[in-house]
Amino acid sequence: MKLLGKDIHFLKEPPETLGVATSPYYRTVPFYLSLVLPILWNLGFVFHLRQKERERTHGHVFRSQRARGIAGDSLERAGQLAQEPSKDFYEEVARALYRYIGDKMAASPSGLTNESIDALLEERETPPGLRKEFLAVLGKCDEARFTPGERTRDEMQRFRD
């Protein structure tokens, strides 16, 4: 033991290091993540903005691509409505078909008539049998929607099949 002065006595050796020996912060994973994540976020944001811009300028393409899924969802809702006899089932089926044709042909579904649908399908060189069947289904929907009387569940089931 060394005497450092008259009043201070040596207590113990100083530790070799204070605290746990670690690498500097700039060599850790959080540091590199803090550098890379903002760049990735900005790239994702730019991609999202470009996608939205393309969707705005070429909306008919995106409508056409999504038409089948949207129509499928509407027909699923119609299937749920078929559990109870009502005209809502036929309205949902007709809405799905009109919207599908409108989306596929880049036309407004609200302005479509049977004649305009037939003309659009003919432009796309749809086989005459398929055009006739499509228009027949729309005709059955219109008949069920606009004629008085209740529809039965069996009638809706036959229509679905």
Overall morphology: elongated
Sheet with the most strands? none
Structural class: mainly alpha
* Count of separate DSSP helical elements: 6
Helical percent range? Answer: 55-70%
Instruction: Measure the end-to-end span.
Output: 101 Å
Q: What share of the residues does DSSP label as strand, in percent?
A: under 5%
Low-confidence stretches: none
| N-to-C SSE string, H for helix and E for strand | HHHHHH
Number of strands: 0
Gyration radius from CA atoms, angstroms: 35 Å
The overall pLDDT, averaged over residues, is: 81
What does the model show?
With 161 residues, this protein is mostly helical. It has a domain at 58-160. Helices cover 66% and strands 0% of the residues. It contains 6 helices and no strands. It has helices at residues 29-57, 59-81, 88-105, 114-123, 128-146, 153-160. It is elongated and about 115 Å long. 11% of the residues are buried.
